[in-house]
């Protein structure tokens, strides 16, 4: 998984050397996506969780499955799975709600259906 996250060169370097890196370097190489001060960690985690929770539940669940599958499978299988998940979201009530709310310039109210 590490080569997919940081690229083969950094993965080799970290594995072969056992080098410890700081948060700034981890951010730079793509090992992490955000650095937060310890005193604001919980607040930031809750903020991200609320942002995710406000999105369409079906889409989030399918996106999670797709992303997990893509990270470990071959490209052809991953693309097929991604297409299948995308098509599944089109038939949901949340998709209709999201499209309609976007057209009206409003925030959607997702039901998870």
Task: Describe it.
This protein folds into two domains: 2-35, no CATH class; 53-104, Lyase 2-enoyl-coa Hydratase, Chain  A, domain 2. It has helices at 2-6, 8-17, 23-29, 41-53, 57-72, 75-90, 93-104. The model has no long low-confidence stretch (mean pLDDT 89). Helix content is 70%, strand content 0%. The protein contains seven helices and no strands. It is mainly alpha-helical. The protein starts with a helix and ends in a 9-residue tail after the last helix.
Tell me the CATH superfamily of the largest domain: Lyase 2-enoyl-coa Hydratase, Chain  A, domain 2
Q: What is the H/E order?
A: HHHHHHH
The shape is: flat
Assign the CATH class of the largest domain: Mainly Alpha
Task: Give the helix tally.
Answer: 7
Provide the β-strand percentage band: under 5%
Summary keywords:
70% helix, 2 domains, mainly alpha, Lyase 2-enoyl-coa Hydratase, Chain  A, domain 2
Summarize the structure.
The chain is an all-alpha fold and 113 residues long. The protein has helices spanning 2-6, 8-17, 23-29, 41-53, 57-72, 75-90, 93-104.
Topology of helices and strands:
Elements: H1 2-6, H2 8-17, H3 23-29, H4 41-53, H5 57-72, H6 75-90, H7 93-104
